[in-house]
Amino acid sequence: MPLQATDKIWMDGELVAWQDAKVHILTHSLHYGCGVFEGIRAYATKQGPAVFRLTDHISRLFNSAKIYMIDVPFTPAQLVEATKETVRVNNIDACYIRPIVYLGYGEMGLNPLPCPVQVSIAVWPWGAYLGDEGIAKGVRMKISSWQRHDPNSMPPAAKGTGMYINSSMAKVEALKAGYDEAIMLSPQGYVSECTGENIFVVKGGRIITPPVSAGALQGITQDSVFAIARDEGIEVEVGNLLRSDLYTADEAFLSGTAAEVVPVQSVDDRIVGDGTPGPVTKRIQEIYFGAVRGELDRYKDWNEYVR
Ligand SMILES: Cc1ncc(COP(=O)(O)O)c(C=O)c1O
User: Which among 96, 97, 187, 199 has a CA at the least distance from the CA of 147?
Assistant: First the structure.
């Protein structure tokens, strides 16, 4: 899916034309991968575009920055407002939103502390990340030969730019082998997460997803799934899973801002359930899509309107 340009990108407090949003080749983050970012979506609702759980995403951005000792030169409230402004000025109903905090031009070398901290927010239209068919029928997953980071080599709670090389390696391996997406295991051999999604299994009517200690990011979609499941009277557990738990699950699904809620059809060629989206997955998916589009009063606090 090639990038679809919009009008303006917010850079350090200014709205810059899309084609002029450039950085110097000696930008520190480009060389050493030290930056933090978020992936957010705005959805079309009856009251105009609503950014889904914007404040929670900006709060995670600041936590990621804290973990990497990056001092963001704006407040969370300023970045919430800047995000809304960027959606507004681009006159777009639904979009993906990418805030990034990065280290700019100034010094080189592995000490990031003297570098200027810069912030940018871009928005563009982005369809279903794992495809419309993936959302409707499910995706084929492969356990990667690449392990997820050990929490003492890369902190899984942070969304650090350089950390995603690990995800890209696993993604390429899975795609080249003919699968849709990869699942990574922790160095201890437990299921961790996918390249940009959390993973859940449904077993005996209960939903289970791996903990941060197994290398999983605390997804905001994951948190929304927890709330929806509990409201539906479905038990939720955060606990370690073995790869065989994936093979023998009644259902499995993925969650993430870009991917949304996606059923899993198979893992390593073992069909999960009967290979079609199961009842729990379908229910969660249906409520999630209702919530993001501002159709459900129960979850209205998650819709942050830009106008
Ligand atoms: C590695 C990884 N895990 C999980 C997720 C899901 O997180 P969220 O639901 O907050 O988008 C993402 C996406 O941000 C991710 O990159």
Answer: 187
159 flagged as catalytic: yes
Per-residue pLDDT at 1 exceeds 90: no
5-30: per-residue pLDDT in tens? 999 999 999 999 999 999 999 999 99
Does ligand 1 lie within 6 Å of residue 38's CB atom?
Answer: no
Cα of 221 vs centre of ligand 1, distance in Å, is 8
pTM: 0.97
257 lines ligand 1 (CB under 6 A): yes
Task: Find, among 71, 95, 72, 67, the residue nearest to 83 by Cα.
Answer: 95
Which pLDDT score is estimated for 53? 98
Any atom of ligand 1 within 6 Å of the Cβ of 197: yes
> Using CA atoms, how far apart are residues 102 and 36, in angstroms rounded to an integer?
7
**Residue 265: is it exposed, middle or buried by C-beta count within 10 angstroms (0-12/13-18/19+)?**
buried
